[in-house]
Amino acid sequence: MRSTHRRTKGLAGIAAVAATSLVLTACGRTDSGAGGEAQSDEVSGGEATGTIEVWAMGTEGEVLQDFSAAFEEANPEATVEVTAVPWESAHDKLAGAIASGETPDVSLIGTTWMGEFAEAGGLMPTPENLVDEADFFPGAWQSTEVGGTSYGVPWYVETRVLYYRSDLAKQAGWDEAPKTWDELKTFAQDMESKAGAEYGLNLQPGQTGSWQTMLPFAWSNGATLTDEAGEEYTIDSPEMAEALDYYTSYFDEGLSPTRLLDPGELESGFAKGDYAAFISGPWHAGLVEDAGVKPDQYEVATIPSPDGEQGSSFVGGGDLAVFNDSDNADSAWKYVQWLSEAETQTAFYEEVGDLPAVQSAWDTGELAEDEQLQVFGTQLETAVSPPAVPTWEQVAGSIDSITEQASKTDLASQEAVAEMQSKAAAIGTGL
After folding, report:
1. How confident is the model over 294-326, as pLDDT tens digits?
2. Which CDD domains has this protein been placed in (predicted)?
3. What is the mean pLDDT of the chain?
Protein backbone atom coordinates (compact mmCIF):
# COMPACT_ATOMS: atom_id res chain seq x y z
CA MET A 1 0.00 0.00 0.00
CA ARG A 2 1.02 3.56 -0.51
CA SER A 3 2.04 6.11 2.10
CA THR A 4 -0.66 8.45 3.31
CA HIS A 5 1.06 11.60 4.44
CA ARG A 6 3.78 12.66 2.03
CA ARG A 7 3.91 16.45 1.79
CA THR A 8 4.84 16.60 -1.88
CA LYS A 9 1.64 17.88 -3.43
CA GLY A 10 1.34 20.96 -5.59
CA LEU A 11 -1.27 23.69 -5.84
CA ALA A 12 -3.17 21.94 -8.61
CA GLY A 13 -6.90 22.38 -8.23
CA ILE A 14 -6.77 25.72 -6.41
CA ALA A 15 -8.21 27.63 -9.35
CA ALA A 16 -11.42 25.66 -9.18
CA VAL A 17 -11.71 26.42 -5.47
CA ALA A 18 -11.65 30.14 -6.12
CA ALA A 19 -15.06 29.90 -7.72
CA THR A 20 -16.63 28.55 -4.51
CA SER A 21 -19.63 30.59 -3.46
CA LEU A 22 -19.06 32.59 -0.29
CA VAL A 23 -22.55 34.05 0.08
CA LEU A 24 -23.84 33.47 3.61
CA THR A 25 -27.25 34.41 4.88
CA ALA A 26 -27.71 36.21 8.16
CA CYS A 27 -27.96 34.65 11.59
CA GLY A 28 -28.35 36.13 15.03
CA ARG A 29 -26.37 36.02 18.26
CA THR A 30 -26.79 36.82 21.90
CA ASP A 31 -23.80 37.61 24.07
CA SER A 32 -22.90 34.82 26.46
CA GLY A 33 -19.91 32.77 27.52
CA ALA A 34 -19.25 29.10 26.92
CA GLY A 35 -22.12 26.82 27.78
CA GLY A 36 -24.91 29.04 26.50
CA GLU A 37 -27.00 28.70 23.39
CA ALA A 38 -25.49 31.80 21.82
CA GLN A 39 -24.98 32.26 18.11
CA SER A 40 -22.35 34.35 16.44
CA ASP A 41 -22.84 37.88 15.15
CA GLU A 42 -24.83 38.17 11.96
CA VAL A 43 -22.85 37.23 8.85
CA SER A 44 -23.81 39.26 5.81
CA GLY A 45 -24.14 38.05 2.25
CA GLY A 46 -21.71 39.07 -0.47
CA GLU A 47 -17.96 39.03 -0.69
CA ALA A 48 -15.42 39.42 2.08
CA THR A 49 -13.72 42.79 2.47
CA GLY A 50 -10.88 44.34 4.44
CA THR A 51 -7.90 42.72 6.10
CA ILE A 52 -8.29 39.31 7.71
CA GLU A 53 -5.52 38.58 10.21
CA VAL A 54 -4.83 34.85 10.62
CA TRP A 55 -2.57 32.86 12.92
CA ALA A 56 -1.63 29.32 11.93
CA MET A 57 0.91 26.84 13.28
CA GLY A 58 3.35 24.34 11.85
CA THR A 59 3.33 23.53 8.15
CA GLU A 60 -0.14 25.04 7.89
CA GLY A 61 1.24 28.40 8.93
CA GLU A 62 4.04 28.14 6.38
CA VAL A 63 1.81 27.50 3.36
CA LEU A 64 -1.49 29.20 4.19
CA GLN A 65 -0.50 32.65 2.92
CA ASP A 66 0.14 31.46 -0.64
CA PHE A 67 -2.80 29.06 -0.47
CA SER A 68 -5.15 31.94 0.39
CA ALA A 69 -4.46 33.65 -2.95
CA ALA A 70 -7.49 31.83 -4.37
CA PHE A 71 -9.72 33.33 -1.67
CA GLU A 72 -8.36 36.80 -2.38
CA GLU A 73 -8.97 36.32 -6.10
CA ALA A 74 -12.62 35.49 -5.40
CA ASN A 75 -12.84 38.40 -2.94
CA PRO A 76 -10.77 41.23 -4.49
CA GLU A 77 -11.62 43.68 -1.70
CA ALA A 78 -10.21 41.33 0.96
CA THR A 79 -6.61 40.75 2.05
CA VAL A 80 -5.49 37.74 4.08
CA GLU A 81 -2.45 38.24 6.31
CA VAL A 82 -1.11 35.00 7.80
CA THR A 83 1.31 34.89 10.73
CA ALA A 84 3.11 31.58 11.22
CA VAL A 85 3.29 30.67 14.92
CA PRO A 86 5.45 27.81 16.25
CA TRP A 87 3.37 25.10 17.93
CA GLU A 88 5.58 25.15 21.04
CA SER A 89 4.66 28.77 21.79
CA ALA A 90 1.14 28.79 20.31
CA HIS A 91 -0.87 28.06 23.47
CA ASP A 92 0.71 30.82 25.53
CA LYS A 93 0.58 33.26 22.63
CA LEU A 94 -3.13 32.64 22.12
CA ALA A 95 -3.87 32.84 25.86
CA GLY A 96 -1.98 36.11 26.13
CA ALA A 97 -3.72 37.58 23.10
CA ILE A 98 -7.15 36.73 24.53
CA ALA A 99 -6.25 38.20 27.92
CA SER A 100 -5.00 41.44 26.38
CA GLY A 101 -7.72 41.74 23.73
CA GLU A 102 -5.05 41.76 21.00
CA THR A 103 -6.15 38.73 19.00
CA PRO A 104 -6.07 38.11 15.27
CA ASP A 105 -9.37 37.65 13.47
CA VAL A 106 -8.97 33.90 12.88
CA SER A 107 -6.66 31.24 14.27
CA LEU A 108 -5.94 27.57 14.03
CA ILE A 109 -6.74 26.11 17.47
CA GLY A 110 -5.57 22.73 18.70
CA THR A 111 -8.65 20.63 19.38
CA THR A 112 -7.82 20.07 23.05
CA TRP A 113 -7.56 23.84 23.63
CA MET A 114 -11.08 24.71 22.50
CA GLY A 115 -12.72 24.36 25.90
CA GLU A 116 -10.14 26.51 27.66
CA PHE A 117 -10.26 29.38 25.17
CA ALA A 118 -14.03 29.32 24.75
CA GLU A 119 -14.59 29.38 28.50
CA ALA A 120 -12.14 32.27 28.77
CA GLY A 121 -14.51 34.25 26.54
CA GLY A 122 -12.08 34.52 23.66
CA LEU A 123 -13.98 32.71 20.92
CA MET A 124 -17.13 33.64 19.03
CA PRO A 125 -19.84 30.97 18.74
CA THR A 126 -20.10 29.48 15.28
CA PRO A 127 -22.90 30.97 13.14
CA GLU A 128 -25.67 28.42 13.03
CA ASN A 129 -25.92 28.40 9.25
CA LEU A 130 -22.26 28.95 8.42
CA VAL A 131 -21.72 25.27 7.69
CA ASP A 132 -23.70 22.05 8.06
CA GLU A 133 -22.55 20.04 11.07
CA ALA A 134 -23.50 16.83 9.24
CA ASP A 135 -20.82 17.52 6.60
CA PHE A 136 -18.05 16.84 9.12
CA PHE A 137 -16.85 13.69 10.84
CA PRO A 138 -18.84 13.54 14.11
CA GLY A 139 -15.83 13.34 16.39
CA ALA A 140 -14.22 16.32 14.68
CA TRP A 141 -17.32 18.47 15.14
CA GLN A 142 -17.53 17.34 18.76
CA SER A 143 -14.15 18.97 19.38
CA THR A 144 -15.68 22.40 18.66
CA GLU A 145 -18.56 22.08 21.14
CA VAL A 146 -18.24 23.52 24.63
CA GLY A 147 -21.27 23.28 26.91
CA GLY A 148 -23.56 22.60 23.95
CA THR A 149 -22.36 25.46 21.75
CA SER A 150 -19.92 25.23 18.85
CA TYR A 151 -17.05 27.72 18.90
CA GLY A 152 -15.34 26.90 15.63
CA VAL A 153 -15.20 24.69 12.57
CA PRO A 154 -13.02 21.57 12.09
CA TRP A 155 -10.28 22.22 9.54
CA TYR A 156 -8.20 19.06 9.32
CA VAL A 157 -8.20 15.79 11.22
CA GLU A 158 -6.05 12.84 12.16
CA THR A 159 -6.88 9.56 13.83
CA ARG A 160 -5.12 6.39 14.91
CA VAL A 161 -5.38 2.92 13.39
CA LEU A 162 -3.67 -0.45 13.78
CA TYR A 163 -0.46 -0.88 11.77
CA TYR A 164 0.71 -4.48 11.40
CA ARG A 165 3.25 -6.49 9.42
CA SER A 166 0.93 -8.35 7.06
CA ASP A 167 3.73 -10.63 5.84
CA LEU A 168 4.43 -11.77 9.40
CA ALA A 169 0.71 -12.12 10.04
CA LYS A 170 0.47 -14.60 7.16
CA GLN A 171 3.33 -16.59 8.66
CA ALA A 172 1.33 -16.69 11.88
CA GLY A 173 -1.81 -17.87 10.06
CA TRP A 174 -3.66 -14.55 9.82
CA ASP A 175 -5.08 -13.51 6.45
CA GLU A 176 -6.90 -10.47 7.80
CA ALA A 177 -6.65 -8.08 10.70
CA PRO A 178 -8.19 -8.91 14.10
CA LYS A 179 -11.61 -7.40 14.73
CA THR A 180 -12.34 -8.24 18.38
CA TRP A 181 -10.35 -7.78 21.58
CA ASP A 182 -9.99 -11.56 21.91
CA GLU A 183 -8.70 -11.76 18.36
CA LEU A 184 -6.26 -8.91 18.93
CA LYS A 185 -4.81 -10.67 21.98
CA THR A 186 -4.46 -13.95 20.08
CA PHE A 187 -3.00 -12.07 17.12
CA ALA A 188 -0.30 -10.53 19.32
CA GLN A 189 0.49 -13.90 20.87
CA ASP A 190 0.75 -15.57 17.45
CA MET A 191 3.01 -12.84 16.11
CA GLU A 192 5.46 -13.70 18.89
CA SER A 193 5.15 -17.48 18.97
CA LYS A 194 4.66 -18.18 15.26
CA ALA A 195 6.24 -15.23 13.42
CA GLY A 196 9.22 -14.55 15.67
CA ALA A 197 8.36 -11.02 16.79
CA GLU A 198 9.83 -9.87 20.09
CA TYR A 199 6.58 -8.04 20.87
CA GLY A 200 3.21 -8.72 19.28
CA LEU A 201 1.80 -5.21 19.80
CA ASN A 202 3.51 -2.03 20.95
CA LEU A 203 1.29 0.09 23.19
CA GLN A 204 2.33 3.20 25.13
CA PRO A 205 2.84 2.29 28.81
CA GLY A 206 1.91 5.67 30.23
CA GLN A 207 3.70 9.03 30.12
CA THR A 208 2.63 12.05 28.07
CA GLY A 209 -0.05 11.34 25.49
CA SER A 210 -0.70 7.72 26.44
CA TRP A 211 -4.39 8.57 26.94
CA GLN A 212 -4.65 8.89 23.15
CA THR A 213 -3.92 5.16 22.83
CA MET A 214 -5.60 3.90 26.00
CA LEU A 215 -8.91 5.79 25.85
CA PRO A 216 -9.98 4.40 22.45
CA PHE A 217 -10.19 0.99 24.13
CA ALA A 218 -12.44 2.56 26.78
CA TRP A 219 -14.60 4.37 24.23
CA SER A 220 -14.92 1.13 22.24
CA ASN A 221 -16.20 -0.49 25.43
CA GLY A 222 -18.89 2.14 26.00
CA ALA A 223 -17.05 4.26 28.59
CA THR A 224 -17.59 8.02 28.80
CA LEU A 225 -15.44 10.75 30.31
CA THR A 226 -18.10 13.30 31.27
CA ASP A 227 -21.85 13.52 31.61
CA GLU A 228 -23.82 14.80 28.62
CA ALA A 229 -23.63 18.41 29.79
CA GLY A 230 -19.86 18.17 30.26
CA GLU A 231 -20.16 19.38 33.85
CA GLU A 232 -19.01 16.27 35.73
CA TYR A 233 -16.42 13.60 34.99
CA THR A 234 -17.70 10.01 34.69
CA ILE A 235 -14.39 8.15 34.46
CA ASP A 236 -15.06 5.68 37.27
CA SER A 237 -17.18 3.07 35.52
CA PRO A 238 -17.07 -0.69 34.95
CA GLU A 239 -16.53 -0.05 31.23
CA MET A 240 -13.46 2.08 31.89
CA ALA A 241 -12.00 -0.39 34.41
CA GLU A 242 -12.55 -3.31 32.04
CA ALA A 243 -10.84 -1.45 29.20
CA LEU A 244 -7.85 -0.46 31.35
CA ASP A 245 -7.55 -4.04 32.59
CA TYR A 246 -7.48 -5.28 28.99
CA TYR A 247 -4.96 -2.60 27.99
CA THR A 248 -2.53 -3.33 30.81
CA SER A 249 -2.77 -7.09 30.21
CA TYR A 250 -0.49 -6.62 27.19
CA PHE A 251 2.28 -5.42 29.51
CA ASP A 252 1.54 -8.08 32.13
CA GLU A 253 1.79 -10.85 29.52
CA GLY A 254 4.93 -9.55 27.81
CA LEU A 255 3.12 -8.73 24.58
CA SER A 256 4.15 -5.06 24.71
CA PRO A 257 7.29 -3.46 26.19
CA THR A 258 6.84 -1.63 29.48
CA ARG A 259 9.20 1.19 28.50
CA LEU A 260 8.90 4.03 26.05
CA LEU A 261 10.90 3.33 22.92
CA ASP A 262 13.74 5.57 21.84
CA PRO A 263 13.17 7.86 18.83
CA GLY A 264 13.22 5.78 15.65
CA GLU A 265 13.23 2.48 17.55
CA LEU A 266 9.63 1.62 16.71
CA GLU A 267 10.12 2.21 12.99
CA SER A 268 13.39 0.27 12.77
CA GLY A 269 11.97 -2.49 14.97
CA PHE A 270 8.87 -2.70 12.78
CA ALA A 271 11.13 -3.07 9.75
CA LYS A 272 13.13 -5.83 11.45
CA GLY A 273 9.99 -7.61 12.63
CA ASP A 274 10.76 -7.06 16.33
CA TYR A 275 7.55 -5.08 16.80
CA ALA A 276 4.77 -6.75 14.84
CA ALA A 277 2.07 -4.12 15.29
CA PHE A 278 1.37 -0.72 16.81
CA ILE A 279 -1.32 1.97 16.90
CA SER A 280 -0.59 5.36 15.37
CA GLY A 281 -1.66 8.07 12.94
CA PRO A 282 -1.27 8.64 9.19
CA TRP A 283 2.21 10.14 9.47
CA HIS A 284 3.64 6.75 10.39
CA ALA A 285 3.13 5.30 6.92
CA GLY A 286 5.94 7.42 5.55
CA LEU A 287 8.13 6.82 8.60
CA VAL A 288 7.99 3.03 8.42
CA GLU A 289 8.61 3.04 4.68
CA ASP A 290 11.60 5.32 5.22
CA ALA A 291 12.85 2.75 7.75
CA GLY A 292 12.80 0.06 5.07
CA VAL A 293 9.35 -1.51 5.28
CA LYS A 294 8.06 -2.23 1.79
CA PRO A 295 4.48 -1.16 0.98
CA ASP A 296 3.42 -4.78 0.50
CA GLN A 297 4.81 -5.85 3.89
CA TYR A 298 2.33 -3.99 6.07
CA GLU A 299 -1.33 -3.08 6.30
CA VAL A 300 -3.48 -0.76 8.38
CA ALA A 301 -6.82 -1.66 9.93
CA THR A 302 -9.47 -0.05 12.11
CA ILE A 303 -9.23 -0.48 15.88
CA PRO A 304 -10.78 -3.74 17.20
CA SER A 305 -13.63 -3.64 19.71
CA PRO A 306 -14.93 -6.09 22.31
CA ASP A 307 -17.76 -7.34 20.09
CA GLY A 308 -16.27 -7.06 16.60
CA GLU A 309 -18.00 -3.85 15.61
CA GLN A 310 -15.65 -1.13 14.45
CA GLY A 311 -13.88 0.26 17.49
CA SER A 312 -13.40 3.89 18.39
CA SER A 313 -10.21 5.85 18.05
CA PHE A 314 -8.91 9.26 19.03
CA VAL A 315 -9.60 12.10 16.61
CA GLY A 316 -7.31 15.10 16.71
CA GLY A 317 -6.30 17.81 14.30
CA GLY A 318 -7.07 21.49 14.17
CA ASP A 319 -10.12 23.73 14.36
CA LEU A 320 -10.64 27.23 13.00
CA ALA A 321 -12.05 29.88 15.32
CA VAL A 322 -12.92 33.57 15.11
CA PHE A 323 -12.17 35.73 18.14
CA ASN A 324 -14.57 37.98 20.02
CA ASP A 325 -12.04 40.80 19.62
CA SER A 326 -11.87 40.42 15.84
CA ASP A 327 -11.92 43.72 13.94
CA ASN A 328 -13.37 42.02 10.85
CA ALA A 329 -15.49 39.13 12.10
CA ASP A 330 -17.91 39.15 9.16
CA SER A 331 -15.16 38.54 6.60
CA ALA A 332 -13.28 36.26 8.98
CA TRP A 333 -16.22 33.87 9.07
CA LYS A 334 -16.39 33.93 5.28
CA TYR A 335 -12.74 32.94 5.17
CA VAL A 336 -13.44 30.07 7.60
CA GLN A 337 -16.37 29.02 5.46
CA TRP A 338 -14.13 28.92 2.39
CA LEU A 339 -11.55 26.79 4.17
CA SER A 340 -14.41 24.45 5.14
CA GLU A 341 -15.56 23.81 1.57
CA ALA A 342 -14.92 20.26 0.36
CA GLU A 343 -13.07 21.54 -2.71
CA THR A 344 -10.81 23.74 -0.58
CA GLN A 345 -10.08 20.92 1.83
CA THR A 346 -9.24 18.59 -1.05
CA ALA A 347 -6.86 21.19 -2.47
CA PHE A 348 -5.24 21.72 0.94
CA TYR A 349 -4.72 17.97 1.26
CA GLU A 350 -3.02 18.04 -2.15
CA GLU A 351 -0.76 20.82 -0.87
CA VAL A 352 0.29 19.58 2.58
CA GLY A 353 -1.31 16.17 3.18
CA ASP A 354 -3.71 17.26 5.94
CA LEU A 355 -6.69 14.90 6.07
CA PRO A 356 -9.97 16.77 5.45
CA ALA A 357 -12.53 17.14 8.22
CA VAL A 358 -15.33 17.37 5.62
CA GLN A 359 -16.49 13.86 4.75
CA SER A 360 -17.37 14.55 1.09
CA ALA A 361 -13.76 15.57 0.41
CA TRP A 362 -12.89 11.87 0.70
CA ASP A 363 -15.12 10.90 -2.24
CA THR A 364 -12.83 11.94 -5.10
CA GLY A 365 -9.18 11.88 -6.13
CA GLU A 366 -6.40 10.19 -4.19
CA LEU A 367 -8.40 10.18 -0.99
CA ALA A 368 -11.01 7.96 -2.67
CA GLU A 369 -8.54 5.77 -4.58
CA ASP A 370 -5.93 4.97 -1.93
CA GLU A 371 -6.96 1.89 0.09
CA GLN A 372 -4.77 2.89 3.02
CA LEU A 373 -6.24 6.37 3.21
CA GLN A 374 -9.72 4.91 3.11
CA VAL A 375 -9.00 2.95 6.30
CA PHE A 376 -8.28 6.23 8.06
CA GLY A 377 -11.48 7.68 6.59
CA THR A 378 -13.46 4.71 7.85
CA GLN A 379 -11.90 5.00 11.30
CA LEU A 380 -12.84 8.68 11.45
CA GLU A 381 -16.50 7.70 11.27
CA THR A 382 -16.32 6.31 14.82
CA ALA A 383 -13.39 8.32 16.21
CA VAL A 384 -14.02 10.34 19.37
CA SER A 385 -12.55 13.59 20.62
CA PRO A 386 -11.90 14.20 24.32
CA PRO A 387 -14.38 16.49 26.07
CA ALA A 388 -13.93 20.14 25.11
CA VAL A 389 -13.68 21.36 28.67
CA PRO A 390 -11.18 23.93 29.97
CA THR A 391 -9.44 21.48 32.31
CA TRP A 392 -8.98 18.58 29.91
CA GLU A 393 -5.21 18.82 29.57
CA GLN A 394 -4.80 18.70 33.36
CA VAL A 395 -7.05 15.66 33.59
CA ALA A 396 -5.30 14.02 30.64
CA GLY A 397 -1.99 14.39 32.46
CA SER A 398 -3.35 12.55 35.50
CA ILE A 399 -4.77 9.79 33.28
CA ASP A 400 -1.33 9.41 31.68
CA SER A 401 0.34 9.11 35.06
CA ILE A 402 -2.13 6.61 36.50
CA THR A 403 -2.11 4.55 33.28
CA GLU A 404 1.66 4.25 33.72
CA GLN A 405 1.24 3.04 37.29
CA ALA A 406 -1.30 0.44 36.17
CA SER A 407 0.95 -0.68 33.30
CA LYS A 408 4.13 -1.06 35.35
CA THR A 409 2.96 -2.00 38.85
CA ASP A 410 0.34 -4.21 40.48
CA LEU A 411 -2.15 -1.32 40.77
CA ALA A 412 -5.55 -2.88 40.05
CA SER A 413 -7.55 -1.38 37.22
CA GLN A 414 -10.57 -0.62 39.41
CA GLU A 415 -8.37 1.25 41.87
CA ALA A 416 -6.63 3.07 39.02
CA VAL A 417 -9.89 4.21 37.49
CA ALA A 418 -11.20 5.33 40.88
CA GLU A 419 -8.02 7.39 41.32
CA MET A 420 -8.48 8.92 37.85
CA GLN A 421 -12.00 9.91 38.85
CA SER A 422 -10.88 11.36 42.18
CA LYS A 423 -8.20 13.52 40.60
CA ALA A 424 -10.52 14.63 37.79
CA ALA A 425 -13.29 15.52 40.22
CA ALA A 426 -10.85 17.58 42.28
CA ILE A 427 -9.76 19.46 39.16
CA GLY A 428 -13.35 19.86 37.89
CA THR A 429 -14.43 20.44 34.31
CA GLY A 430 -14.16 24.20 34.50
CA LEU A 431 -17.68 24.72 33.20
Report:
1. 999 999 999 999 999 999 999 999 999 999 999
2. PBP2_MalE
3. 90
State the angle between helix axes of 238-252 and 392-408 in degrees (0 to 180), rounded to the nearest 10.
Answer: 50
pLDDT computed for residue 228 by the predictor = 86
The model's pTM is 0.87
CA distances to 105, 230, 353, 364 from 367, rounded to whole Å, are 31, 34, 10, 6
Rounded CA-CA distance 403/406 in Å is 5
What's the confidence (pLDDT) of residue 314? 95
Please tell me the distance from the alpha carbon of residue 40 to that of residue 150, in angstroms, as a whole number: 10
User: 199 phi and psi, to 5 degrees?
Assistant: -135, 135
Domains plus CATH for the chain? Answer: 14-158+316-380 (3.40.190.10), 161-313+386-427 (3.40.190.10)
Question: What is the rounded distance in angstroms from the CA atom of residue 277 to the CA atom of residue 270?
Answer: 7
CA–CA distance, 255 with 108 (Å, rounded to integer): 39
Nearest to 226 by CA among 237, 210, 216, 238: 237
pLDDT at 129: 81
Residue 123: strand pairing partners: 323
